[in-house]
Amino acid sequence: MNTQSLPNLPDTDEPTAVVIDVTPELARVWLRANTRNRNTRERAVTEYARDMVAGHWNLNGEAIKFAYDGSLLDGQHRLRAVIEADATVQMLVVVGLPPEAQETMDTGRKRTTADVMGLRGETNAHTLAAVLRRVWAWDHGDKKFGGSYSATNRECAQLLAERPDIRRSAEIAVRTRQAFPHIPQSALGTAHHLFSRLDAAAAVWFFQRVADGAELPVGHPILALRARVTSERLDSVRMPEARHMAYLIRAWNAVRENRSLDRLVHPPNSAVPDPK
């Protein structure tokens, strides 16, 4: 096999780069040259395909790579995503590489959503990224943040463009955590955004009281929340993030319903409630 046997590729033994519109049909043919590669990660294929369908896949310099003998060295996930998305995507393609070059591919550190937010100059980039990923998961039915797939960097950027108020949720999460360090910023920011959809002013007051616990009567749900997470933190209980979310939502719902709570309980493995 050599690159001459693969359509749309230049026939050369020297490293050569070209930009090609990769169709699903072309991707299928090229994947026949995928004779020695790592196992496919279906989650990555699905995430790439979602970005391609949404039009978020840009020409970014990352290449599909072929050896001079015609074997596919790098790009199987992107090619499979083209097929899954049933989309034509412009890609950089490099041919004529030595087969042993595959051993040094994909050894760099993956760019995270926090990296992307930082490059954009966003304040509280790490917290903002965490909140964006969890709001996206929540809106896609994953209320325990443990689903089989998660938001891509481009999906998080699109979510921020659609809901710029998430920046404010990240800011409040950071401030609340500084005052009351027993709930993760990601859960605080996600909960603030969800609560703000229902009543923005009430959400501001709720998180102020989570932070300081000031002027709350005995039996107030926020006092029960603060006592519960403080107790579990002091006991070194490893709490999944979904339980923090459940505690926040149960306290919020009780406040909204004007109910007293002497003790906050969320049974293990039970569903995370919806805020009201």
Please describe what this structure looks like.
With 276 residues, the chain is of the alpha+beta class. It has 2 domains: 97 residues, no CATH class; 144 residues, no CATH class. Helices cover 48% and strands 9% of the residues. The protein is built from 11 helices and 4 strands, in the order βααββαβαααααααα. A 4-stranded mixed sheet has the order 1-4-2-3, with helices on one face. Strand 2 and strand 3 form a beta hairpin. It is elongated, with a radius of gyration of 24 Å. 38% of the residues are buried.
**Gyration radius, rounded:** 24 Å
- Please indicate the count of domains: 2
Sheet with the most strands: spatial strand order: 1-4-2-3
Task: Give the low-pLDDT segments.
Answer: none
Please report which band the strand proportion falls in: under 5%, 5-15%, 15-25%, 25-35%, 35-45% or over 45%.
Answer: 5-15%
Count every helix, treating DSSP H or I runs of 4 or more residues as helices.
Answer: 11
How many DSSP E strands?
A: 4
Write down the secondary-structure element order. EHHEEHEHHHHHHHH
Question: Major beta sheet, specifics?
Answer: 4 strands, mixed
What is the element layout, followed by pairings?
Blueprint: E1 16-22, H1 24-31, H2 42-53, E2 63-67, E3 72-74, H3 76-85, E4 89-97, H4 113-119, H5 125-139, H6 153-162, H7 166-179, H8 185-198, H9 200-212, H10 221-234, H11 241-256
Parallel strand pairs: 2-4
Antiparallel strand pairs: 1-4, 2-3
Quick structural gist:
With 276 residues, the chain is of the alpha+beta class.
